[in-house]
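hi! just following up on the protien thing from before. the input was this:
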Amino acid sequence: ADTQLWFTVGCTLLGVLTVFAQRGRAGASIVFEDAMGKLPERFSKQVLYYSKFPGKEPGKAVAANFSKNFPRVWDRIVAYMRYEDDIDTNTMADLSFDLKNARDGVIFEDLQKP
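and the predicted 3d structure came back as:
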């Protein structure tokens, strides 16, 4: 049992050192940044990369730095979490972009559609 513990601790330290060696100062930002706050932006860049980001046109304000499709996808993810009883209705309302549908509840038949 002691050998497995030290092997796990050693691999963890080696992994952390590798991250700092490869990413330099950017690796340190992982510890101090608000990861949940950057979720929409990162999800949009890495998963919804084909979607157009709001442009910086003259006279138009940019409200969000993520894809216009992210709120729909996120609300669907939250609805599945509610369907699976991973979260309750109040938490679903807090996490959803569309508050009206979150308050009305989840229509479970809609979640069976692709």
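The mean pLDDT is 75.
The longest helix spans residues 2-23.
cheers
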